[in-house]
Amino acid sequence: MPLILGTTVLLCAFVLSLLATAVAIRLGRRWGAVDGLGERKIHRSPVPFLGGPALFAAFVLVIGSGLAGAALLEAAGLGASWLPPQVRAIARSPGGAGLRLLGILIGAGSVLALGLVDDVRGLRVGTRFLVQFAAAGAVVAAGVRPDFLGLPTVIAVPVAVLWIVGMTNAFNFIDGMDGLCAGVAAIASGILAYHLSAHDQPMVALLLLALLGAILGFLRWNFVPARIFLGNAGAMCLGFLLGSITLEGAFLTAEHNSVLPAVLPVLVLGVPLYDAASVVAIRLANGRSPFRGDQNHLHHRLRRTGMSVRQTVLFIYLLAFSVGINATLLPDVDPFGGLVILVQVSAAMGLLVVLERVIRRSDHGGDTLAAVPADYEVVDPEGRPVDSLAGTARVRRLEREGCVLEPAKPITGRLSDFFEARWLVRVRIAPDGAAPITTLGAVRGVEQDRDGAQTWKLEFRDLSRAERGRLDEWVEARGPGRESRVASLESERPAA
């Protein structure tokens, strides 16, 4: 593929997306299309969520104008000088390739519209899946499906549909921090575009370069601190596009002497897939619905290590690049070399798992349950819930006498007034999927760091014998010599 052609597509998509996103920021604020504050949100002021339509519009405009320009060049007899053979063929007679591209754009547009409705009104999980499967089915019906050396249609069709729907939701899952989803998608698009261009598939590479340019233009406004979000619409649309376009690429051909190159797109898109798989596993282990949102995504878990939002996002960028760039070697090595690459990637992900588990067990040499969710509500001395003072939290430390709790949404106002009035906190915790305990806690201290995160030091009250036994088991199971560090809470003064 000529370098000037790829560069032109990339730059045009970048400029269009840059301008379209700036307009979307203004329109989002004017129309009230903003993402408000909530327990699982990390932003501290409402942010417009119309980034998805702006990004998709730039992508479609570049693809449409590019194909129109290619048709004009071909009609003028200049195609041989400017265009790769595959692009010239589509410009002369769109045929099956044009139909497949149209199917991808229509399917992605449908998912974008679904996401916009979900962003504005909220939709049930079943409704989202119904539209996603229908859109993916339409794309596959248009002819987009994996070509693995004659894979039977009865297998290729469901694999293609599940892949597209899976990627759609994986990118929606990972969209939880400024610039995270868009950055991971940009890395994947760039790596795949490089690989497919090097292996003589310029049309698919150009689609990915157009997508990369559109993402980079949007990312100018979306990186930390974000001025606009993708929203569910943009995140699902990105996942849908990447899932569909990767099926258009031929990663396994007759010249390869192993089937390992077929997993190349899986590795390049491995980080969002790992996030989705791990968070579903955590929810199921804790007895929760896999579709109920929480703060157990990869970015949340890394954030609990003490990383800032920017550090967390850059860490995941580096992980996605490291895994993806390794995968591009799969078609060029022998089977043994391919297995070595797979082992390297598996080891990198394994190190991440070990890191998460070690950090979860250690908080500056002490005990922590950073990944364990909790529910809480503030009650008055008679045990009656106080309006609006309830939500989810995570346990930083759990001891025999109490715990350190971090509410997902900090309470504003004069907390000292609340707790000096002898208000209590009813908390429900269940580490490691064990049977939960529910108890009242008296607040013996409140702290707030520079990032706005609050921690409450609670002293347990009214534990039943059974709950006391479970609590003792939890504490003892994490090693000897870890006695309570909450015993001295009584002497600490509450923070204002």
Descriptive overview:
This protein is an alpha+beta fold. It has two domains: 3-360, no CATH class; 369-491, Thrombin, subunit H (Beta Barrel), CATH 2.40.10. Helix content is 57%, strand content 12%. The strands form two sheets. The chain has a six-stranded antiparallel barrel with strand order 3-4-5-8-7-6. It has a two-stranded antiparallel ribbon with strand order 1-2. Strand 4 (385-398) and strand 5 form a beta hairpin. Helix 1 runs antiparallel to helix 2, helix 7 runs antiparallel to helix 10 (231-248) and helix 8 runs parallel beside helix 14. The chain is elongated. The termini are far apart. The model is unreliable at 37-41, 362-369 and 479-496 (pLDDT under 50).
Q: Can you give keywords for this protein?
A:
single chain; 496 residues; Thrombin, subunit H; 2 domains; six-stranded antiparallel β-barrel; two-stranded antiparallel ribbon; 57% helix; 12% strand; disordered C terminus
| Secondary structural class | alpha+beta
- Strand fraction equals 5-15%
How many domains? The number is 2
Number of strands: 8
Stretches where pLDDT falls below 50 for ≥5 residues?
37-41, 362-369, 479-496
The sequence of SSEs as H and E is HEEHHHHHHHHHHHHHHEEEHEEEH
| Coarse shape | elongated
Helix content: 55-70%
Radius of gyration: 26 Å
Largest sheet: 6 strands, antiparallel, barrel
Between the first and last Cα atoms, what is the distance in angstroms?
64 Å
Output the strand order for the largest sheet. Answer: 3-4-5-8-7-6
Number of helices: 17
The pLDDT mean sits at 82
